[in-house]
Amino acid sequence: MRGLGFDIxxxxxxxxxxxxxxxLYQDRLSALxxxxxxxxVVLALSVAxxxxxxxxxxxxxxxxxxxxxxxxxIPVALQRIIVRLGIxxxxxxxxxxxxxxxxxxGLVALSMxxxxxxxxxxxxxxxEDLAFALAVVLLGLLMMVTRRNAVSQVVGFMSLxxxxxxxxxxxxxxxxxxxxxxxxxxxxxxxxxxxFLFRIRERFDTIDVGALDRFRGERT
Amino acid sequence: xxxxxxxxxxxxxxxxxxxxxxxxxxFVRKVKARLLRRQGPxxxxxxRDLIRLMRKEVIVxxxxxxxxxxxxxxxxxxTWVAAALVPTFRTGLLFSWTAxxxxxxxxxxxxxxxxxxxxxxxxxxxxxxGSSREVMIASLAEPAMLxxxxxxxxxxxxxxxxxxxxxxxxxxxGLRVSLGLALIALIIVAIAENARIPVDNPATHxxxxxxxxxxxxxxxxxxxxxxxxxxxxxxLLYISLIACLFAPWGIADKxxxxxxxxxxxxxxxxxxVVGGFLLALFETAIAxxxxxxxxxxxxxxxxxxxxxxxxxxxxxxx
Amino acid sequence: MAxxxxxxxxxxxxxxxxxxxxxxxxxxxxxxVYGTSLLTSLISLCVAVSILLGVAAASSLxxxxxxxxxxxxxxxxxxxxxxxxxxxxxxxxxxxFALGYGRHxxxxxxxxxxxxxxxxxxxxxxxxxxxxxxxxxxxxxxLTSWALVIAHHRVRENMYAGYVYLVMASFGTLSLLLAxxxxxxxxxxxxxxxxxxxxxxxxxxxxxxxxxxxxxxxxAGLVPLHAWLPLAHPAAPSHVSALMSxxxxxxxxxxxxxxxxxxxxxxxxxxxxxxxxxxxxTCVLGVLYALMQHDLKRLLAYHTVENIGIIFIxxxxxxxxxxxxxxxxxxxxxTAALLHVLNHSLFKSLLxxxxxAVLGATGERDMEHLGGLIHRMPHTAFAFLVGCVAISALPxxxxxxxxxxxxxxxxxxxxxxxxxxxxxxxxxxxLLALSAALAAACFVKAFGVTFLGRPRTxxxxxxxxxxxxxxxxxxxxxxxCFLVGILPGxxxxxxxxxxxxxxxxxxxVQSTVEWLSIVPVAExxxxxxxxxxxxxxxxxxxxxAFVIHRLASDxxxxxxxxxxxxxxxxxxxxxxxxxxxxxxxxxxxxxxFRARERGEMPxxxxxxxxxxxxxxxxxxxxxxxxxxxxxxxxAAERLNKLQFLTIRQYLSLVFSALVLLLLVLATxx
Lengths: 220, 318, 669
Description:
The complex is a heterotrimer of chains A (220), B (318) and C (669).
Chain A: H1 4-25, H2 29-54, H3 58-85, H4 97-118, H5 124-146, H6 150-170, H7 176-204, H8 209-215
Helix pairs in contact in A: 1-2, 1-5, 2-3, 2-6, 3-7, 4-5, 5-6, 6-7
Chain B: H1 2-35, H2 45-55, E1 58-61, H3 66-84, H4 101-121, H5 125-156, H6 161-169, H7 177-193, H8 212-215, H9 221-246, H10 258-285, H11 294-314
Chain C: H1 2-23, H2 27-52, E1 59-63, E2 72-76, H3 78-101, H4 108-111, H5 114-127, H6 131-149, H7 156-184, H8 192-198, H9 202-220, H10 229-235, H11 238-263, H12 269-291, H13 296-323, H14 327-362, H15 373-376, H16 378-391, H17 398-411, H18 419-451, H19 458-461, H20 468-486, H21 488-503, H22 530-551, E3 556-559, H23 577-580, H24 582-592, E4 596-600, E5 611-615, H25 619-640, H26 647-667
Antiparallel strand pairs in C: 1-2, 4-5
């Protein structure tokens, strides 16, 4: 079933993986948050296109939710937070960019091979979208692992959730109730993390998680 | 009769690329100047520069060898042969079977090899700076380009440029992820290979910031004219390559008549204008990178090319 | 008939070697030895080529020497004929070179006897048709080359290099011994025909593959068993270095191809994974090591490692295709690998000859003491330039053809069904492309720093051109590089019978393609015409020169260099080899070698110069060789205590060994 619809779905899913790579490449916090906003926009477009070709109108709501919350509200809020924390010009990296990218490539290869092998009898559009979605999830995890700054880890977590949404829409959609509950739980988690960030900053004057290890006595 | 017509078309292409190359550079300079609210040099200025340089006496350093004097002709010949084989207004060029895309890239690679040697020939430190940076950039740009070739060859089923261009025009190609990745990677590689901002500044003569200009610092007269013409030809080659692979509409096919050929030439000129404009816009909007950020930039192109190839290996429908 | 002639040539070489032990210091000994070598190599070359072109037929022979129940078997089939041709060509070129270069030799009695024995040994390895003769000839080859490596024994590094070489060579022979033991089985069927008929497969074959990779791979220079190569190859005299790098490594490749493709049965797909992973790593590491060197011969030796990686990539792909029955693709990959065998032996020999000429003229191997030699040694410089262009895989020379064929083989591999290979092959392709680009960088450095620029020391300023024989040899090999580059179709056709023999298919006939192009798969898919590309480039260059000289100016004036207006800069301000490689060292070396640059600034008031120190760590040596060496030393210390036991302890040792053996005998079922 080749056709323009197929191709555009692939293109959008592939762009999501590409934007995940771009997130890995960023080392300035405000650029990272802007890239995350782009990630959410591409996700919204992808979900909207899936709604169009699968003829599933409730997915339009999912797309709108992704657009409003993740592309507008959360990035604006995060930008405000980092300006208030005074870290909006920081540059940070744990592992070198080259090795992170290579590892990211390996993760994409792994998810491709895994998904295409495991779902050998399923619908081709769903299979390949699932493969891209798993790649986005893994890249989000990679981002959480390779970053020091708590805000970057939050962004990684959010992009991971974007990957899950892509997977869910690819597998012929989720009921709306699940989607709303997932969105709200994300919002709550976000608020909690935000509060913690402020508390950590108050106590230790930094939100570098490496500093937390030092204070716990696990590292000198 | 057919053979003579094909030969005439091939010959016309060779002359066309040679004639249009300085005009394209003049156009890019003009657009950049206008974007900066300057008048800019006239469109035909590069032609005048070339003629002026060719008439001048060549001054060669005392420590330069015969290689120094031969290299401008060699690199011009290699680049001209490569440019003559990239379809511009018609696919199915007569000699396209002599060198496929891998061979064209290798020809550009040999031009770069000899230019780097020319930088080292006189024995000054500026030539060394240029050559060592150039080979560093090449060590990443060339694999990235080869990965792009692999991606395109796996989609089109051939490494011959004419066949690829023909495939890209046909409706069978579709809108693929790997093509998108290959396009972005090709644009990055083209910027690096042509020594444009953000990799290298073609307008500066400050030794700490230049790569290409440092290698040719000791050249003068007709040698410098040939090297400038080669650089302009290379820019035209890369823009034609991007046009014929990713924006192939309007290109005449093998058995086209005179009207289709004329349309092909007109659309080609249009594509050059668009490409030159976009290049000028991009160069004005972005700052030049530090030299040691260029490997990251090109590493991204290599990764994109590798990702595209990987996707196609895993499943043909990507 | 042909085989008998070849064996006579080998005997002639052996006789020349043994005879020279007595007369090595006489002036005519050099001409005798190298002249005989040249003559016999040319005869072997003609015989081998006649077999490849189908003029003579394959044959085998059994001599009543060696083990009484199998004798000494020799056979000449297309595979051995090809490698014999490579060996003979390299030997002939080296002998011609040495006729002139050998004049510089200070201790001819250590070099002249061993040289023909080395050539004879290499030819015997390729001709052997049973395990015993093969291993005997292989050990003989190692020993004679070891003797040549320690020829200049007064230099301390050479003795160390010889020691490491001997250890690694013995280790390699041990692996091959085990491999042949497994293949021959309990019945002791050592002949290659018997092994082939037994058709080994399964776990036995896998074990043999691993042992052969270790044994032949260490001789060829696969990472991580390559460590002896950059020590031993530069230590030998230059013509012997050329033979070791250009020819002996190919004999090791022959061993691998013979055992894995011919003697073993149908391969399993995961064998190719092992070979491809090792080959890809070898490729990139070899060229990165080469880029960090400033000793010219060591740079060339490390570069051999990279080219062996390229050959093994082709062989790995051929294994993968063969395992899945894609025969024509396997033939393409195999042809690419074998053509690269030929090409590498040509251009690596040429480059070593060039470095030998430079060493003879200036006494220097370190590039940072050379420079400007293109003015003093123009012919050597031109030949070396041809070698550099060829090895950087630039059209229209021969390096590009084998690289192009390998890329075409990679483009055929999406049809492989295995997922592991689908992910591995693009990665290997990227590594191959990366190593090709880095190789070009390496040889810009090698040629540019050595021959171009201005002389950095007095030795470089007073160099003179080498003698006629050396130059003739270099130009002949350069001419061959050019020939294979512009007429590759004939050479590909010559390799077709080998592909038939090993994978059961062949490439389409190339010599009938119009305009002498090569079309490995199909016309619509890809083609390349070296001759036309060369003609186009020449024509365009001449046209440009003619037009400009007639219509514009052709005046020229010499003046001091512009150098941005700095006056009279000293030759020390030129780029050195280390500074040329600095950007690449910074990009790749910080990860691969933990390269660090440190500036040591003396405190104010101190008159010492500031120093820039570059630290490189060979991670493979630290991780693999150093612990093994330490472990062996510790074990040796412990076992040393056995030397100092009392008489009672010795007696009890003997007693307990006897009791143990009797126990084993009692309980053996």
